[in-house]
Amino acid sequence: MTPDPIDRFSDDRQISRKTLLKAALVATAVPLFAGTGVALARDTGSSGAPLAPTPDCDDGDGPTHDQMEGPYFKPNSPLRTSLVTSSTPGVRLTVSGYVFGRACRPIPGVLLDFWQADTNGGYDMSGFAFRGHQFTDASGAFTLSTVVAGLYPGRTRHIHVKAQAPGSRVLTTQLYFPNEPRNNTDTLYDPALLMNVRTVGSGKEGTFDFVLDVAQNPTDPPTDPPTLPGGSWAAGTLYNAGNRVTYGGVAYRCLQAHTALTGWEPPNVPALWERG
What we know:
It is a single chain. By secondary structure, the chain is mostly beta strands. Helix content is 4%, strand content 25%. The protein is built from one helix and 15 strands, in the order αβββββββββββββββ. The chain has one helix at 17-28; strands at residues 92-100, 111-115, 131-135, 141-147, 158-164, 170-176, 196-200, 203-207, 210-211, 231-232, 238-239, 244-247, 250-254, 258-259, 273-275. The radius of gyration is 19 Å and the shape is globular.
């Protein structure tokens, strides 16, 4: 039997305009969990019946809260949606959701950079294990394959993430797991950043929707990304696929739309730039 595409993880949250828009996205998009329906965050009220759309994206949580970066962030993570292989130890976890702006419309092309501890609570500081970045698709959706983050002294389980919509500032935050004993003692823990998590077979599936502080006025004309043939690469610039820049006297072509960050210079990020 095919599960209900609206996942009833949170019976105490109202259905908002954001939820209704997500339902429409699900009806026209490929399911994030193929064969098992789509797990959506913050989706049903106690009655399970849809409520009238609200006039904006405020469903009680507002823009996603920011949090400290912590000491274990590394720039230049690889472009990938899976942080695991068939031999990676740990309980498998799939995290999915959408990224919305303040007007409750999904945002495509959002850069999401994830990093976390392994199942034993350790961070890889010499390589890029359990580190990776990706971009939301045309419907504003993302999916991350990883394992349940391990524990280490002073912290509850969590996943770090940086989120940046094209041309906007970076949101740095952390995602948390429900029903963790250390949630009550971790001074950084924020219940507004709880994922919805359920057990599926031997693994877990989690959902979380980011709301970025990005204005989405439908009367605003669209902003075209710059075309910079022969220009010099510069941090803070919104680049589109196909844009050409120079860096260190070498020409590069942009492979994916993104807003440049310090540390993401073309020779350092082959997922975003190729020579030529």
